[in-house]
Design goal:
Blueprint: E1 4-5, E2 11-16, E3 28-30, E4 35-36, E5 43-48, E6 52-61, E7 67-78, H1 82-92, H2 96-116, H3 121-126, H4 128-145, E8 148-159, H5 165-230, H6 232-324, H7 332-358, H8 366-375
Antiparallel strand pairs: 1-4, 2-3, 2-5, 6-7, 7-8
Length: about 375
């Protein structure tokens, strides 16, 4: 938007054209937010606050007069406070990265030469961290005066420029290391030879023990074979005995099975047929009995019918006898009725006696009688 500016997260916005509202600086510093700026009357510039890296390579002379080629790297940036931003802006706003890295390298190179000149090669090699810390401490004040802070200072390499001094210093250690390495190799060879001898001895012991075990196994096998050969007939006899016993058990089981089959195939059907014949015979006998009873009843009914048919004649003969007899009847008609009733009663008694005399004698049980009655 026209007249409104917002710096990046790693930038500081510098607004010039009027006296600063904070601390009386030459310009206003805005970090982390935007601001309206009056066009034509104010000028806006941006100062990077990102991390920068400066590399230095410096030839330094130790207290022994030995020249060393030292390489180092410095990580630096603009400080986050307003004073640091103002100081850095006044010095690096036009050519920020190049000028900042160049000036930083010059500051550290000077302090590096100074501190290396106060140390020996042995101290520098053994105490490289101490060297870096002293150079960093010596450079902080000057870096702060130009608005910069240092995050780290690392010495990358130290070279004696082919003088051989460092190699000479290292020679005793190298020789010592080589001697120790040779001793270790000799010890390792000795241990290896010892281990090899031990392995050969163990191998011999193993082979000997294996031979002994093989001999023992062979002896036990031969003994077992001999015992088996001697026990062969006895074992065969035992086997034959077991076979006979198993065959006996099998034969018994087959006999029981055959018995069950005969019961199922012969006995059970015969019993069933006998039962059937008995039931049929009982049924035929009962039928004959029922028929006899029915015939007897039929004959008795026929006889009763004949007697009944002759009853009037019998009553008439009785009446004739009464007529020829000298009877005196009292009570008029009632007396006559009584006489006739007596005659009929005698005729019925005569009929009953005739039935008892001439009826067929058939013995019928209650069940047959019930069947005859139902059929009648």
């Amino acid at each position: 938007m026209l007249g409104y500016y917002v710096p990046e997260p790693d930038e500081a916005m510098l607004i010039s054209g009027k006296k600063s509202d904070v601390g009386g600086g030459p310009f206003d510093v805005v970090v982390g937010h935007g601001r309206w700026v009056l066009p034509f009357f104010r000028k806006v510039r941006f100062l990077s606050m990102a991390m920068h890296e400066a590399q230095i390579r410096e030839v330094c002379v130790t207290t022994q007069g030995i020249q060393l080629d030292v390489r180092a790297v410095i990580a630096h940036k603009v400080g986050g406070d307003v004073a640091s931003i103002v100081n850095a802006g006044q010095r690096f706003i036009s050519e920020q990265e190049n000028e900042m890295n160049q000036l930083t390298g010059q500051i550290f190179s000077g302090h590096l030469r100074s501190i290396v000149g106060s140390m020996t090669v042995e101290q520098i090699i053994r105490e490289r961290d101490t060297l870096a810390r002293q150079v960093l401490e010596a450079s902080k004040r000057e870096m702060g005066s130009i608005g910069l802070v240092v995050d780290s200072f690392q010495i990358q390499s130290i070279d004696d420029m082919d003088s051989g001094y460092i190699n000479a210093l290292a020679a005793p250690n190298i020789a010592k290391v080589q001697r120790e390495a040779a001793v270790e190799r000799a010890r390792a060879d000795q241990e290896s030879a010892k281990a090899q001898q031990e392995s050969l001895r163990n191998q011999a012991d193993y082979e000997r023990e294996t031979s002994i075990k093989r001999a023992q196994i062979k002896a036990e096998t031969d003994k077992a074979d001999a015992e088996a050969a001697q026990a062969g007939p006895l074992a065969q006899a035992r086997v034959n005995q077991e076979i006979i016993r198993e065959q006996s058990v099998l034969a018994q089981a087959e006999a029981e099975l055959r018995e069950q089959q005969l019961i199922s195939e012969v006995v059970k059907p015969a019993e069933a047929e006998a039962r059937r014949t008995h039931i049929i015979a009982e049924a035929d006998a009962r039928a004959v009995e029922i028929q006899s009873a029915a015939a007897a009843k039929h004959n008795r009914i026929a006889l009763d019918q004949q007697i009944i048919e002759q009853l009037p004649a019998l009553v008439g003969e009785i009446a004739k006898g009464l007529g020829s007899s000298n009877l005196t009847v009292f009570n008029g008609a009632d007396g006559v009725n009584e006489v006739m009733t007596g005659v009929v009663t005698q005729g019925a008694a005569l009929l009953k006696s005739l039935q008892s005399e001439f009826a067929p004698k058939v013995i019928v049980d209650d069940e047959v009688a019930d069947d005859i009655d139902r059929s009648a």
